[in-house]
Automatic annotation (TrEMBL):
Gene responsible for this protein: murD
Keywords: ATP-binding, Cell cycle, Cell division, Cell shape, Cell wall biogenesis/degradation, Cytoplasm, Ligase, Nucleotide-binding, Peptidoglycan synthesis
Coiled coil: none
Family annotation (Gene3D superfamilies): Mur ligase, C-terminal domain, Mur-like, catalytic domain, NAD(P)-binding Rossmann-like Domain
Organism this protein belongs to: Winogradskyella litorisediminis
Annotated ATP binding sites: G109, S110, N111, G112, K113, T114, T115
Protein purpose: Cell wall formation. Catalyzes the addition of glutamate to the nucleotide precursor UDP-N-acetylmuramoyl-L-alanine (UMA).
Protein name: UDP-N-acetylmuramoylalanine--D-glutamate ligase
Alphabetized Pfam families for the sequence: Mur_ligase_C, Mur_ligase_M, MurD_N
Top enzyme class: ligase
Amino acid sequence: MKRLVILGGGESGVGTALLGKAKGYDVFVSDKGEIKQNYKDVLIHNEIKWEDKQHSESLILNADIIMKSPGIPDKVELIQKIKTAGINVVSEIEFASHYTDATLVAITGSNGKTTIASLTHHILKQELDVGLAGNIGDSFAKQILEKNHQNYVLEVSSFQLDDIQDFKPHIAILTNISPDHLDRYDYKFENYIASKFRIIENQTEDDYFIYDADDEVISEWLENNPIKSQKLPFSLTKEFENGAYIKEENIIINIDNNHIIMPIKKLALDGKHNVKNAMAASTAAHLLKIRKQTIRESLENFQGVEHRLENVLRINKVQYINDSKATNVNATYFALESMQAPTVWIVGGVDKGNDYREVFQFVNEKVKAIICLGTDNTKLMQTFGNMVDVIIETQFMSEAVKIAYKIASAGDNVLLSPACASFDLFENYEDRGRQFKEAVRKL
């Protein structure tokens, strides 16, 4: 009996444990932190051995295969020992993909992954049997075990792609690449870029690669690296024989002379980045033979993703917007770009070596006040102190929202778009977004 050891007892770990057990592995789950009670209950109920608050090397280094949580860096001593022992280390998407013949649509990129994945799933589910997994919802492994859909839309991170071997999506989407998580890539941007492009490394000429042709990093990489898959670019400025582009305020998607035309003004979501998200999702749907009318209707009624430019409430003619999912500067760039009114901007958290220069033009144009919400706001105060008349710091979400309420006048926006990770004051970006919404509702 082959031994499968799983490092990390979260959603992907427990899902893999269930699938592994069903496929006849001797399964052991080990987590250095505490496993949440709901996951413990699942493991106990399924008679799967586990430990938490420690990693017992004697129980790990005898594995035939190890699935590690994407959150564990390769630099960790235990991982080094595992690699030295020659044990095969894979990610959940790699392990799970061996047990399904489903058509896979996989989406990666620094920003926009969740929106494109949710939008693609929203369109496909109108006509196909399709699951949504990866970094969203129930784990891929668990869904293969319980639902076994014929199609899956997967949101995948660079960390998950770092540990693939044979993983091969039929349709791969790359949204954009901006510096993020560089601490995991020896602070070398090229390592992070290479990691993202692993999404297409196993593709053949029968597969498709949908990507943002306006992204210089992607375009440059493609110039220097030949790929096998069929390219379907999308762009706001260029036109293509095969791909998606803009003409006279319409999105045009053209694949082998088969067109879809969609008026931009009918899209449910605002902002240039959402035009791109619509292009990417529709191209995938078009490839999977979804009817044009279904694609159009789905783009018109899609509600968006929680914590991503989510309109919370309008109070005294001030719109409060939750963009807690903006954990890097590039995501905040899209948020500020789409603001149509003077904005009170709530920013801050754990800075991942951020370079804020790309948002300067929008801060000068649109931001009337900045509220820094983090344990250490020095860099923000120094960077933006001279750009706005009002800059205030706090360490409490409730206080940040009260300050914003006092500063904002009728017609303004109050935008939470932190550009940073959330781990200094919050459990995660969802917790941060929920606290923001709660504070707004209490005003």
